[in-house]
Amino acid sequence: MTQTTLPEGMDFPLEGVRVLDLSRVFAGPLCGQVLADFGAEVIKVEHPLRGDDTRDWGMRIGKTETTYYNSMNRNKRSITLDLQSAEGVQIIYELLPQFDVVIHNFKHGGADKLGLGYEKLKSIKPDLIYCSIAGYNSDTPEAHRPGYDLVIQAEAGLMAINGEEGTPPLKFGVAVVDLMTGMYAAQAVLAALYRKSRTGRGRQIELALYDCGLTINGYYALDAMLLGHDTQRYGNAHPSIVPYGLFDAADGPLIIGVGNNRQYEAFCRHVIERPDLFEDPRYATNVERARNRHEILPLLKQVIASHPRQQLLERMRAVGIPCGEVAGLHEALTSERTRQAGMFHQMPHPVVGQTWVFAPPYRLDGQRLPIRNAPPTLGDSTRAVLQELLSMSDEQLQSLKDKGVLTLPEQQG
């Protein structure tokens, strides 16, 4: 485990909170990572041989990590336990009194089958905060269906609002349903921890990927309900604001976000030097521009394409119009802007020397929360955690290892 020191004067809101993260893949691990970023001690429980599924997704780093795994598991410690074994489940029971939160995303009924359902764990830890994530609601006929981000994007209408008009439905570039579900789960756990601090009572939290997928549709969903049919797709443009989106200058693409009529007047007069496009009553207000978008946008695109990109950017910034270049991913990650933000770091790695890790996006009292632990190798803390919290002897650990219940750090290289 690689650990950084805490900046002077910095403390963590969740210091002293312990989280048992039984989840895997994306949404659950992201919830655990958010809590870990805020200072909770998060113990990730993984299968002794294969670990989290995502240890085999993405580009390999060392022996047990990948780029996918590392994106969701910083600031955690990893232990290995076979939860299909009675001994593995018994260790969870013994650990539980020292933990505040449990996170899992077992299939519907899977936690109860293992003996890890809410009622059972609540009987051991009455004030437990228990967060479960599934594909669909537990009280519906589809409760047993597995939840996959791509399937939910399709079923929740997200693919129908993404992409350009006249093209097939398109998934988002990242697993947006998993991403948002993990964040919603973390919010719910934080609310439950606040309640527990006042009342001493725990709480059962359930999240469904499908519910979160629907929620992400936002104002598109409300538009569709009012219309009684699907909304039009706008690709990189905005359904309500014109001009807003990606445009091609003479020498490359740029983003223009004219958010109000004052900005639009400045855009016409001082950026593209076409005051007539503001003075025309068909385009003077955003409501009118949106109504007449098929007339105004071709005109604007033609004018924008006649100007160099840097000239347009400088003029827009001078009059306060939101704008920017379109960067490649690697270009964005290696930009001076990202370096100044302190969002991307290399940390020591026991096998490959160094590994890239995102910093938490939160800033508290003027300081960005640090990366305390690099994403853990598989089972890096099995020995340490079980000795610290359960006082297990080396002989006990070796016996459990021999039975296949767990692995110990020596096996991981």
TrEMBL record:
It comes from the Bacteria. Keywords: Transferase. SUPFAM superfamilies: CoA-transferase family III (CaiB/BaiF). Pfam families: CoA_transf_3. InterPro entries: CoA-transferase_III_domain (IPR050483), CoA-Trfase_fam_III (IPR003673), CoA-Trfase_III_dom3_sf (IPR044855), CoA-Trfase_III_dom_1_sf (IPR023606). One of its GO terms (molecular function) is CoA-transferase activity. PANTHER family: SUCCINATE--HYDROXYMETHYLGLUTARATE COA-TRANSFERASE (PTHR48207). This is CoA-transferase. It comes from Comamonas kerstersii.
